[in-house]
Amino acid sequence: MIRRQPGGVVEELAAANLKHAASFLQGAYTIVLALALSEAFKQFVADSGERNIFWDRTASLIGFLVQIFPFFHGMSRYLFKTYLMPGVSPDDWPGYLMFDGIAFMMMSGCFFVMSRSLSTDRWMRFYGSAGLLLVFDSIWIGVGLWRGVKQIEMWLYLNGVLAVGMLIALFIWRKSEKSLGPPIMYAVFNGATTVASYYFMRNFYFST
To answer: What is the pTM of this model?
Structure first.
């Protein structure tokens, strides 16, 4: 539950401590996501050789980008609304913040693995890490809903939609070691869920 703190020196110190801890967490997962984003572009643009750009990785890159952006935006907005908004402090926040930190770092790690798996012959590893990302995210959302953070419920439904799209791709191309189909399917479903996320959750993303 989220409650507003009354004024006073003790409350101000508690709020400052909470803000510092949440800011540290935000900085930690931001670094990992930045490394993943950098690695994705390095996988797309060659350092040397005859090929300057790996165009066959375009779909994987697009799918990766349209997922990492709303994840990062959503993580930042969640931290702000839950821990950093002036006058708001959650009950028992150290335990919840530690759980959020572990979950966000694990999801950021999945993004890094995805960034190293953009080539068409590694689509199974890309899908595996993306599936693990959805599992971690859904568990985190479930805990948040149990905690009383109702604004993130839509993400759980969108995870289900994306998971269905991934399962369809896995069934169709399950015997293909190298294919453009799964990355294209992933990009399409990810683009759709991202648009839906920003439409249905626009108040969460852009309002106080």
So the answer is: 0.88
